[in-house]
Amino acid sequence: MQQTISFITLGVSDLARSRAFYGALGWQEAAASQAEVAFFQAGGVVLALFPRQALAEDAGVASAGQGFAGFSLAHNVTSEAAVDSLLAAAQAVGATCPQPASRAPWGGYRGYFADPDGFLWEVCFNPFMPLASDGSLRLAE
């Protein structure tokens, strides 16, 4: 298997609400979006929003379940101030903030917000992993 991720699809309970939430954060929906699915270009990966029940049916699994999903998404930024600003912006449009920004034990600065469906986003400034001008992150070989 080639070491790539093409899509991250979040199964959401209310597609219109999730579209509005990510739009309020400044995300631009791609032209490929349709009434039943929203696509957002996120660097070399596409973030998709799809109704939870439909995603579960597509995968052949039960849609029930709640609580910690066992993963988080991460958005790295270029400064500690940018962490604070993005967490405040997310809260202003309906996110909850289960972990306010603080210094991380490894030397960075990070906090978490949860989108309307509880998907966790870590907002992080990592001084040891500088971002490229396009916002992407490349690990040393």
Description:
By secondary structure, this protein is α/β, with parallel strands linked by helices. The protein has 2 domains: 1-60, 2,3-Dihydroxybiphenyl 1,2-Dioxygenase, domain 1 (Roll); 68-131, 2,3-Dihydroxybiphenyl 1,2-Dioxygenase, domain 1 (Roll). It contains 3 helices and 7 strands. The strands form 2 sheets. A 4-stranded mixed beta sheet has the order 4-7-6-5, covered by helices on one side. Strand 2 (38-42) and strand 3 form a beta hairpin. The radius of gyration is 16 Å and the shape is globular. The relative contact order is 0.18.
Helix count?
A: 3
Q: Tell me the strand order in the biggest sheet.
A: 4-7-6-5
Low-confidence stretches: none
The CATH architecture of the largest domain is Roll
> What Rg, in angstroms, do the CA atoms define?
16 Å
Structural class: alpha/beta
Measured as a percent range, the helix fraction is: 10-25%
Order of helices and strands, N to C? Answer: EHEEHEHEEE
Range of strand content: 25-35%
Summarize the biggest pleated sheet. Answer: 4 strands, mixed
Number of domains: 2
Please report the first level of CATH classification, the CATH class of the largest domain.
Answer: Alpha Beta
The overall pLDDT, averaged over residues, is 92
Number of separate strands: 7
